[in-house]
Amino acid sequence: MVEMPPSAPALLSLLQLASPALPIGAYSYSEGIESLIHQGQITNANALAHWLTGELARGTIRLEAAVMMRAFRAWQQQDGATLDMWNDWLSAVRDGEELRNQSWQMGRSLLRLVGDLDPAGLAALPDTLRSERCNFAIAFGITAALWQLPQSETILVFLQSWTANLISAGVRLVPLGQTEGQRLLRQLADPLQQASQQIQGLSDDQLFACSWGLSLASMNHETQYSRLFRS
Question: How many domains does the chain have?
Fold first, then answer.
């Protein structure tokens, strides 16, 4: 079955949800990139591309994207218990405090924004997710379902916005030029599409990641003497 391209309203909503101008604070996080650059492990665009490609293929972002789509479907079915379960699961698999707090802060900010834009839309949101501890992937999935966005494009947009944010951190920290950053984002188009396709086929039993590199980078970042980013 051939999927129809998103309608103009859906495309505009996808662009809005992925926009770096979305006021959720994503720009203030590097997810360990700052620590890796400080340690000399990422020194140029090729090293950053290698790190991001590995994360897309094997890292925690795969779990977040897979759970985001499960939240998307749970919201469509008005299944609050499943939303709560996956939100707790995501919180539990975080290895470090900074990454957990990042996800909660961005999730909280996104739900607050959506509540302001569409107050009636979140009327069915479970009370547990109105707290301070709704993960960003859960909030993203809920928003995409509420705005009636297509699933396959939503997961690609979720991954692309994550990638673009970390490239932006690399542009500022390595530093890389703006053109080099854009070249890198285009270079990662194939890994992004491959990750999107693979993630859509993951069963619940396949939700695991090799994320010890990110965990170590994040924990080192917690004690880094001087830093620009929050994670």
Answer: 1
What predicted TM-score, i.e. pTM, was given to this entire model?
0.95
Give the DSSP letter string of 97-148.
Answer: HHHHHHHHHHHHHHHHHHHHH-TTTTTT--GGGGSS---HHHHHHHHHHHTT
**How high is the pLDDT of residue 223?**
83
> What is the residue type of 55?
E
The length of the chain in residues reads 231
Give the tens place of pLDDT for each residue, 126-155: 888 988 899 999 999 999 999 999 999 999
How distant, in Å, are the alpha carbons of 19, 33, 149, 225 from that of 36?
26, 5, 35, 14
Q: What is the DSSP string of 11-30?
A: HHHHHHHH-TTSSS-GGG--
Q: Is residue 15 situated within a structural domain?
A: no
The DSSP output letter for 153 is: H
Q: What is the mean pLDDT of residues 109-118?
A: 94
pLDDT tens digits for range 22-49: 999 999 999 999 999 999 999 999 999 9
Sign of CA dihedral 130, 83, 164, 51: positive
DSSP conformational letter for 78: T
**Enclosing domain of residue 150:** 31-215
User: What CA–CA distance (Å, rounded) separates 180 from 166?
Assistant: 13
Is residue 78 included in any domain, yes or no?
yes
The 10 Å CB-count burial string (b at 16+, else e) for 98-126 is bbbbbbbbbbbbbbeebeeeeeeebeebe
